[in-house]
């Protein structure tokens, strides 16, 4: 007996969710919201999900309403007797809070994991977590997908000679090495020091980029301060060109202006977070919808998804 499937989405992610559902091969489920004058809202599933597999799509970028809306829809599906509920979270917010790096601070990523499980999620599907160990915060299966399956084919299509992969910081060295191994490229690393978030005090380049075409790789771009400083450093060191490739386009603060004024030739991102500004010609968006649609199909049909883990 084939288990029925229903796909729902939070309101801020409706565009990506519609594309994912098309790639999956079925329309989004009917969902309505009751909005109160004080800002409170109540989602309602407008179709029966009893005994079904339910996918709820929603990236949890700020404001916190995006996370709360996802939790409420999951809770509604659980109370409507859905058999399996998968939270599909292209961008997993609060992932930078993955440990206690100083006294008296929360571990936000662990809190979100607890909330998703308490709401009724039986599985989580996400992409390029800021820290791999976040998977261990869950007592339910986590499908951790990688945007490298999207990016690598695009980089190959550029036919860049003398390619070098760069990491904008020491923490991304493993990611840079992984990309380099698939692209037969060299690796350089930018070493940085900072005293507070989003503010780099010192940066230097480890490795030679003279006469090379360089691609900086990262999991997210927030204010773009580190990225644009690294790009300028690389070009000043004699590189032929520099591009950036990051999964999650947070783009807060003056990110768009910094990118526009930087020496970056191109910034390649996915649509895990909807862009606030689509007028910047340097930004190239590659959709993650086909990846999620395919993996959702594989999960529902109890097939292996290991081929989707390039890195």
From TrEMBL:
<dbReference type="GO" id="GO:0006015">
    <property type="term" value="P:5-phosphoribose 1-diphosphate biosynthetic process"/>
</dbReference>
<keyword id="KW-0067">ATP-binding</keyword>
<dbReference type="GO" id="GO:0000287">
    <property type="term" value="F:magnesium ion binding"/>
</dbReference>
<dbReference type="Pfam" id="PF13793">
    <property type="entry name" value="Pribosyltran_N"/>
</dbReference>
<keyword id="KW-0547">Nucleotide-binding</keyword>
<keyword id="KW-0545">Nucleotide biosynthesis</keyword>
<keyword id="KW-0479">Metal-binding</keyword>
<keyword id="KW-0460">Magnesium</keyword>
<dbReference type="InterPro" id="IPR000836">
    <property type="entry name" value="PRTase_dom"/>
</dbReference>
<keyword id="KW-0418">Kinase</keyword>
<dbReference type="InterPro" id="IPR000842">
    <property type="entry name" value="PRib_PP_synth_CS"/>
</dbReference>
<dbReference type="GO" id="GO:0005737">
    <property type="term" value="C:cytoplasm"/>
</dbReference>
<dbReference type="InterPro" id="IPR005946">
    <property type="entry name" value="Rib-P_diPkinase"/>
</dbReference>
<feature type="domain" description="Ribose-phosphate pyrophosphokinase N-terminal">
    <location>
        <begin position="6"/>
        <end position="120"/>
    </location>
</feature>
<dbReference type="GO" id="GO:0004749">
    <property type="term" value="F:ribose phosphate diphosphokinase activity"/>
</dbReference>
<dbReference type="GO" id="GO:0009156">
    <property type="term" value="P:ribonucleoside monophosphate biosynthetic process"/>
</dbReference>
<protein>
    <recommendedName>
        <fullName>ribose-phosphate diphosphokinase</fullName>
        <ecNumber>2.7.6.1</ecNumber>
    </recommendedName>
</protein>
<dbReference type="InterPro" id="IPR029099">
    <property type="entry name" value="Pribosyltran_N"/>
</dbReference>
<dbReference type="GO" id="GO:0002189">
    <property type="term" value="C:ribose phosphate diphosphokinase complex"/>
</dbReference>
<dbReference type="GO" id="GO:0005524">
    <property type="term" value="F:ATP binding"/>
</dbReference>
<dbReference type="GO" id="GO:0006164">
    <property type="term" value="P:purine nucleotide biosynthetic process"/>
</dbReference>
<dbReference type="GO" id="GO:0016301">
    <property type="term" value="F:kinase activity"/>
</dbReference>
<keyword id="KW-0808">Transferase</keyword>
<dbReference type="InterPro" id="IPR029057">
    <property type="entry name" value="PRTase-like"/>
</dbReference>
<dbReference type="Pfam" id="PF14572">
    <property type="entry name" value="Pribosyl_synth"/>
</dbReference>
């Amino acid at each position: 007996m084939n288990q029925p499937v229903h796909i729902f989405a939070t309101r801020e992610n409706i565009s990506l969710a519609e594309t994912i559902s098309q790639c999956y091969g079925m329309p989004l489920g009917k969902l309505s919201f009751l909005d109160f004058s004080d800002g409170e809202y109540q989602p309602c599933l407008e179709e029966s999900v009893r005994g079904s597999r339910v996918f709820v799509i929603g990236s949890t970028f700020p404001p916190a309403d995006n996370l709360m809306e996802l939790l409420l829809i999951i809770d509604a599906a659980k109370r409507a007797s859905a058999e399996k509920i998968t939270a599909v979270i292209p961008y997993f917010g609060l992932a930078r809070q993955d440990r206690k790096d100083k006294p008296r601070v929360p571990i936000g990523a662990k809190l979100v994991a607890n909330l998703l499980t308490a709401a009724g999620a039986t599985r989580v599907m996400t992409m390029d977590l800021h820290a791999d160990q976040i998977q261990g915060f869950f007592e339910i299966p986590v499908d951790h997908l990688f945007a490298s399956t999207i990016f690598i084919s695009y980089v190959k299509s550029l036919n860049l000679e003398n390619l070098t992969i760069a990491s904008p910081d020491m923490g991304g060295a493993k990611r840079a090495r992984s990309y380099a191994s698939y692209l037969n490229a060299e690796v350089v690393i930018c070493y940085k020091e900072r005293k507070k978030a989003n503010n780099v005090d010192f940066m230097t380049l480890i490795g030679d980029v003279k006469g090379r075409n360089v691609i900086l790789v990262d999991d997210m771009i927030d204010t773009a301060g580190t990225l644009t400083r690294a790009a300028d450093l690389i070009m000043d060191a004699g590189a032929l060109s520099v591009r950036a490739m990051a999964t999650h386009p947070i783009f807060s603060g003056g990110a768009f202006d910094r990118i526009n004024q930087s020496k970056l030739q191109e910034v390649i991102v996915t649509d895990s977070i909807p862009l606030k500004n689509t007028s910047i010609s340097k930004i190239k968006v590659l959709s993650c919808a086909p990846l999620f649609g395919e993996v959702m199909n594989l999960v529902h049909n109890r097939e292996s998804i290991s081929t989707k883990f390039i890195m």
